[in-house]
């Protein structure tokens, strides 16, 4: 088994990675390292019940609520240097818990807890990318529903401008606006739930970076004229023209995606 040795001085990455061969013959090192990332995450309120169809058959349910609504997360991500190369990505996910677990305000504290003990995880239902390598690896290694799309991110100091287009060049979605004043905050490690070959995977994602919280952000998500499913979901979830209630951003983010572990929901 071929391994890549890493500098012992940086404990975040560990000491080695093993090589995994994809069906195309291309290879990926695992855990998968993302060394230079611009990561913006935005949380939106969605009317209770609208997210459930995206979780049908998973054994999961929305795990976070805010003022009576359920919560959806959107990530705008620019990878400049990673084990999967350089590419852009947009993520739409539902912070979720097993259906047997209670929905509580205390689920928010789970975001700060140990990855090993955490039950709140991100169920990704849209994850377009600009790289075929990333698409292939995401599907084969973690079961993420990655697909190719045209995505342009423009991150400038205090502003964000993202446009996604379909194969015909029609706008699928856009995000634009100013971020304003910011406060340093702690980057949150992630847990994801996904399915590969019909089996649930639980994947830990360890992160670090100088993250900032923007209390007075003025950014807006809009659906474009495209009939792509992402545009339809933005409209159907009431998010066309919506502004997030939480925005955090880091231009110097790093992440280590562990290998997905087979997971069986108790009572699911």
Question: How would you sum up this structure, described in words?
Answer:
The protein is globular, with a radius of gyration of 18 Å. The protein has a single domain, classed as Acetoacetate decarboxylase-like (Beta Barrel), CATH 2.40.400. The protein is mostly beta strands. It has two helices and 20 strands. A seven-stranded mixed β-barrel has the order 4-7-8-9-15-16-19. Strands 11-12-13-18 form a four-stranded antiparallel sheet. A three-stranded antiparallel sheet has the order 1-2-3, with no helix packed on it.
Keywords:
268 residues; mainly beta; Acetoacetate decarboxylase-like; 2 helices; 51% strand
What topology does this entry show?
Layout (H helix, E strand, L loop, with lengths): L2 E3 L10 E6 L5 E4 L1 E15 L13 E3 L2 E2 L2 E14 L4 E12 L22 E9 L2 H11 L3 E3 L1 E7 L2 E7 L5 E8 L4 E3 L4 E7 L2 E11 L1 E3 L4 E6 L5 H8 L9 E12 L3 E2 L6
Parallel strand pairs: 9-10, 9-15
Antiparallel strand pairs: 1-2, 2-3, 4-7, 4-19, 5-8, 6-7, 7-8, 8-9, 11-12, 12-13, 13-18, 14-17, 15-16, 16-19, 16-20, 17-19
Number of strands: 20
CATH topology-level name = Acetoacetate decarboxylase-like
What is the rounded distance between the termini?
Answer: 36 Å
CATH 2nd-level architecture: Beta Barrel
Order of helices and strands: EEEEEEEEEHEEEEEEEEEHEE
Report the major sheet.
Answer: 7 strands, mixed, barrel
Mean pLDDT: 95
Total individual domains: 1
Strand content: over 45%
CATH domain class name: Mainly Beta
Secondary-structure-based class equals mainly beta
CATH superfamily: Acetoacetate decarboxylase-like
Helix content: under 10%
- Ranges with pLDDT <50 over ≥5 residues? none
